[in-house]
């Protein structure tokens, strides 16, 4: 008998990898106001006001604080957004991926 042109299909499973996460920190400086840091945490990192105030105090007393873990491309975008919004207001606030 001849093979009627039917191919046998084999099932392969899609393997999706969880992206490597990057930790984003805000770094303390002597010029950025408390209110601006809270604003950044609210708008860029979607933190509640209470959570943002706690993180801001940690930044102030410890020099830096983890504000979130994101896939690398998202983390880079957030770091740029912090810089852009802060420079627009005249603040040197810095976010880093550490």
Key terms:
42% helix, single chain, 3-stranded antiparallel β-sheet, 98 residues, 3 helices
Describe the protein's architecture and organization.
The protein is α+β, with helices and mostly antiparallel strands. It contains 3 helices and 3 strands; from the N terminus they run E-H-H-E-H-E. The chain has helices at 34-43, 49-62, 72-88, and strands at residues 21-27, 64-71, 94-97. Strands 2-1-3 form a 3-stranded antiparallel beta sheet. The chain is elongated, with a radius of gyration of 22 Å. The relative contact order is 0.24.
Map the helices and strands.
Blueprint: E1 21-27, H1 34-43, H2 49-62, E2 64-71, H3 72-88, E3 94-97
Antiparallel strand pairs: 1-2, 1-3
Helix pairs in contact: 1-2
Unreliable segments (pLDDT under 50, ≥5 consecutive)? Answer: none
User: What gross morphology would you assign?
Assistant: elongated
- Give, in spatial order, the strands making up the sheet with the most strands: 2-1-3
Number of beta-strand segments: 3
String of helices and strands = EHHEHE
Structural class of the secondary structure composition?
alpha+beta
- Largest sheet entry: 3 strands, antiparallel
Percent of residues in helices: 40-55%
Amount of beta strand = 15-25%
How many helices? The count is 3
């Amino acid at each position: 008998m001849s093979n009627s042109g039917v191919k046998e299909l084999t099932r392969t499973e899609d393997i999706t990898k969880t992206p490597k996460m990057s930790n984003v920190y805000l770094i303390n400086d002597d010029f950025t106001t408390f209110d601006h840091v809270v604003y950044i945490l609210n708008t860029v990192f979607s933190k509640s006001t209470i959570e943002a105030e706690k993180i801001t105090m940690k930044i102030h007393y410890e020099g830096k604080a983890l504000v979130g873990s994101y896939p690398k491309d998202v983390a880079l975008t957030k770091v740029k957004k912090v810089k852009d919004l802060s420079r627009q207001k005249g603040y040197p606030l810095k976010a880093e991926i550490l």
